[in-house]
Specification:
alpha/beta; 47% helix; 12 strands; single chain
């Protein structure tokens, strides 16, 4: 057993040494998937150059001699080209994936123009391999009882959101880039969740947290609609596998199991060992509430927590298979229940830490002498 452990350690060290010779460039490096991807790349011995728009790097970011942050923007071609210089591979994750934008053109400016800039800079810098993070919504929703895959033609011509539209348009356009010689591999993450940045991109984890706190007990459309849920560590690892083993011109769905919202809530109940409130709800009420939020955003500029398009997306089936990624990349997602368990444990630690900090601050405040 000791000999086996020693052999595995040597193999791992050799792999890290080989990877150290590769410098990878990452856009969207401070986002939910991007931040976990950067950590995994460093763990596997890669040298990482991460693009950031902020002059100040957050204090909690990984400190590693193989990690270099550079200032730039995907909508600034010169900064992109300079930042990419000397890199071997590119991971392009940066996107505008929010519910709403004050200026609707923002979706096209980032998801279309920005992606074209990344592709053009990669070509000028003779990048060996590009992994572009698209999304499962480009494949369109699935029919009841149907499990889709990468070869499935879109069943719905219309788009629910501007995000879905711009990402789909760019995926179609990418075929010409590939035909012209761009070494591009596309990955399509599903509903990604787990420990990490609690941004809008990590909305499933926020949903889990709110459900456990009793803040969101609502089963939209009675919780019947099915989605595919991928754990963050698996999806980040899938990006690396796509770079190392993916076939140029192919796309790979990165996710996990297909479950309904009712299944999600029931899984949390089993893990917590206690019942949480659940209210079955038809579509009309959440659509009306979302419409109010949308009008408020339009009139007052207040960002909406949900929009009618978001509700319509959520009350539609998005059931997909990850078999292609498993067979061709060696992608190995963990079971859904285990992924939820790890997420709940992380949330407990996160929430308890926050509560302890708040209690400490209150105690300090109450212990101050009165004048």
């Amino acid at each position: 057993m000791d000999d086996l452990s020693s052999s595995l350690s040597v193999i791992s060290a050799d792999c890290n040494t080989m990877n150290a010779n590769k410098k990878v460039f990452v856009t969207g490096s401070t986002g939910f998937i991007g931040s976990v991807l950067v950590e995994k790349l460093l763990q596997q011995g890669y040298s990482v150059r991460a693009l950031t728009r902020s002059k100040r790097i957050p204090d909690n970011k990984t400190k590693n001699e193989n990690l270099e942050y550079c200032l730039g923007d995907i909508n600034n071609p010169k900064s992109l080209q300079d930042a990419m210089l000397g890199c071997d591979c590119v991971f392009h994750l940066a996107a505008y994936a929010k519910n709403w934008a004050k200026n609707p053109k923002t979706f096209a400016e980032v998801n279309l123009v920005g992606t074209r800039n990344v592709f053009a800079s990669a070509r000028k810098n003779n990048i060996q391999r590009i992994v572009w993070t698209s999304t499962i919504v480009t494949l369109g929703p699935t029919l009841k009882g149907v499990i889709g895959d990468e070869s499935m033609p879109r069943q719905r011509a219309k788009y629910f959101t501007e995000y879905e539209k711009t990402k789909t348009v760019m995926e179609n356009e990418s075929l010409q880039w590939i035909a012209d010689g761009l070494p591009l591999v596309i990955v399509n993450p599903t509903r990604v969740f787990g420990p990490g940045v609690m941004s809008e991109s990590n909305s499933v984890t926020r949903l889990i947290d709110n459900y456990r706190r009793g803040r969101f007990p609502f089963l939209l459309n009675w919780g019947r609609n099915v989605g595919n849920y991928g754990y963050i560590d698996d999806v980040a690892e899938g990006h690396i596998l796509a770079m190392e083993r993916g076939t140029i011109g192919e796309r790979y769905i990165l996710g996990g199991e297909n479950v309904s919202l009712k299944d999600v809530f029931d899984t949390i109940t089993r893990i917590d060992g206690k019942r949480h409130l659940q209210f079955k709800m038809y579509c009309l009420i959440p659509l009306l509430v979302a419409k109010i939020f949308e009008l408020r955003a339009k009139w007052l500029g207040i960002y909406p927590p949900i929009t009618p398009d978001w509700v319509r997306t959520f009350i539609t089936d998005w059931a997909f298979s990850c078999e292609k990624a498993k067979n061709e990349l060696g992608y190995k997602p963990i079971p859904f229940e285990e992924a939820v368990r790890r997420t709940c444990e992380w949330l407990d630690k996160r929430n308890n830490t926050g509560n302890n900090v708040e209690k400490t601050q209150n105690n300090v405040q109450h212990s101050k002498p009165h004048h």
